[in-house]
Write a structure and sequence with these properties.
By secondary structure, the chain is an all-alpha fold. 25% of the residues are buried. This is Stage V sporulation protein AE.
Protein backbone atom coordinates (compact mmCIF):
# COMPACT_ATOMS: atom_id res chain seq x y z
CA UNK A 1 0.00 0.00 0.00
CA UNK A 2 2.96 2.33 0.67
CA UNK A 3 4.04 2.01 -2.97
CA UNK A 4 0.57 2.91 -4.18
CA UNK A 5 0.43 6.06 -2.05
CA UNK A 6 3.93 7.07 -3.13
CA UNK A 7 2.93 6.60 -6.76
CA UNK A 8 -0.34 8.52 -6.39
CA UNK A 9 1.10 11.47 -4.47
CA UNK A 10 4.23 11.74 -6.62
CA UNK A 11 2.15 11.31 -9.77
CA UNK A 12 -0.24 14.02 -8.67
CA UNK A 13 2.63 16.46 -8.07
CA UNK A 14 4.06 15.65 -11.51
CA UNK A 15 0.63 15.91 -13.14
CA UNK A 16 0.20 19.39 -11.65
CA UNK A 17 3.52 20.35 -13.25
CA UNK A 18 2.38 18.97 -16.61
CA UNK A 19 -0.90 20.88 -16.39
CA UNK A 20 1.05 24.07 -15.68
CA UNK A 21 3.24 23.43 -18.72
CA UNK A 22 0.30 22.64 -21.02
CA UNK A 23 -2.23 25.27 -19.96
CA UNK A 24 -0.21 28.27 -18.77
CA UNK A 25 2.48 30.43 -20.27
CA UNK A 26 4.89 29.52 -17.47
CA UNK A 27 8.24 28.24 -18.66
CA UNK A 28 9.62 24.98 -17.25
CA UNK A 29 12.27 26.99 -15.36
CA UNK A 30 9.60 29.08 -13.63
CA UNK A 31 7.63 25.96 -12.75
CA UNK A 32 10.82 24.44 -11.28
CA UNK A 33 11.33 27.52 -9.10
CA UNK A 34 7.64 27.52 -8.16
CA UNK A 35 7.75 23.87 -7.04
CA UNK A 36 10.96 24.28 -5.01
CA UNK A 37 9.64 27.46 -3.39
CA UNK A 38 6.32 25.77 -2.66
CA UNK A 39 8.18 22.90 -0.98
CA UNK A 40 10.09 25.38 1.21
CA UNK A 41 6.94 27.33 2.07
CA UNK A 42 4.88 24.25 2.93
CA UNK A 43 7.73 22.89 5.06
CA UNK A 44 8.06 26.19 6.90
CA UNK A 45 4.34 26.13 7.65
CA UNK A 46 4.57 22.53 8.84
CA UNK A 47 2.31 21.21 6.10
CA UNK A 48 4.75 19.18 3.99
CA UNK A 49 6.15 16.92 6.73
CA UNK A 50 2.84 15.01 7.09
CA UNK A 51 2.75 14.51 3.32
CA UNK A 52 6.31 13.12 3.40
CA UNK A 53 5.43 10.83 6.30
CA UNK A 54 2.40 9.56 4.39
CA UNK A 55 3.77 9.28 0.85
CA UNK A 56 7.51 8.79 1.43
CA UNK A 57 9.46 8.99 -1.84
CA UNK A 58 6.31 10.11 -3.63
CA UNK A 59 6.70 13.43 -1.84
CA UNK A 60 10.50 13.67 -1.58
CA UNK A 61 11.52 12.80 -5.14
CA UNK A 62 9.67 15.59 -7.05
CA UNK A 63 10.99 19.15 -6.96
CA UNK A 64 8.85 20.05 -3.97
CA UNK A 65 10.88 17.45 -2.09
CA UNK A 66 14.07 19.39 -2.84
CA UNK A 67 12.48 22.48 -1.30
CA UNK A 68 11.44 20.35 1.67
CA UNK A 69 15.01 19.09 2.08
CA UNK A 70 16.46 22.60 1.92
CA UNK A 71 13.97 24.02 4.42
CA UNK A 72 14.32 21.08 6.82
CA UNK A 73 18.12 21.35 6.72
CA UNK A 74 17.94 25.10 7.33
CA UNK A 75 15.56 24.73 10.27
CA UNK A 76 17.78 22.08 11.88
CA UNK A 77 20.93 24.17 11.34
CA UNK A 78 19.28 27.25 12.84
CA UNK A 79 18.36 25.23 15.94
CA UNK A 80 21.92 23.95 16.20
CA UNK A 81 24.05 26.95 15.11
CA UNK A 82 21.74 29.92 15.47
CA UNK A 83 21.47 32.53 12.73
CA UNK A 84 24.54 31.18 10.92
CA UNK A 85 22.52 28.05 10.15
CA UNK A 86 20.43 30.06 7.67
CA UNK A 87 23.42 30.15 5.34
CA UNK A 88 24.73 26.63 5.82
CA UNK A 89 21.73 24.40 6.58
CA UNK A 90 20.18 24.02 3.14
CA UNK A 91 23.50 23.45 1.44
CA UNK A 92 24.63 20.87 4.00
CA UNK A 93 21.32 19.00 3.80
CA UNK A 94 21.35 18.76 0.02
CA UNK A 95 25.10 18.30 -0.56
CA UNK A 96 25.00 14.52 -0.99
CA UNK A 97 22.22 14.66 -3.59
CA UNK A 98 23.90 17.42 -5.56
CA UNK A 99 27.26 15.63 -5.45
CA UNK A 100 25.63 12.41 -6.66
CA UNK A 101 23.95 14.25 -9.55
CA UNK A 102 27.25 15.80 -10.63
CA UNK A 103 29.12 12.48 -10.33
CA UNK A 104 26.57 10.42 -12.26
CA UNK A 105 26.24 13.16 -14.88
CA UNK A 106 29.99 12.98 -15.39
CA UNK A 107 29.94 9.18 -15.62
CA UNK A 108 27.10 9.35 -18.18
CA UNK A 109 29.11 11.88 -20.20
CA UNK A 110 32.04 9.47 -20.31
CA UNK A 111 29.92 6.76 -21.94
CA UNK A 112 27.88 8.89 -24.32
CA UNK A 113 28.85 10.51 -27.57
CA UNK A 114 27.78 14.07 -28.18
CA UNK A 115 26.63 15.06 -31.59
CA UNK A 116 24.75 17.62 -33.59
CA UNK A 117 21.00 17.48 -32.99
CA UNK A 118 20.09 18.32 -36.57
Amino acid sequence: MDYLWAFLIGGTICAIGQVLIDFTKLTPARILVLFVTLGVLLTGLGLYEPIVNFAGAGATVPLTGFGYLMAKGTLEAVREHGLLGVFSGGVAASAAGIAAAVFFGYVAALFSKSGDKS
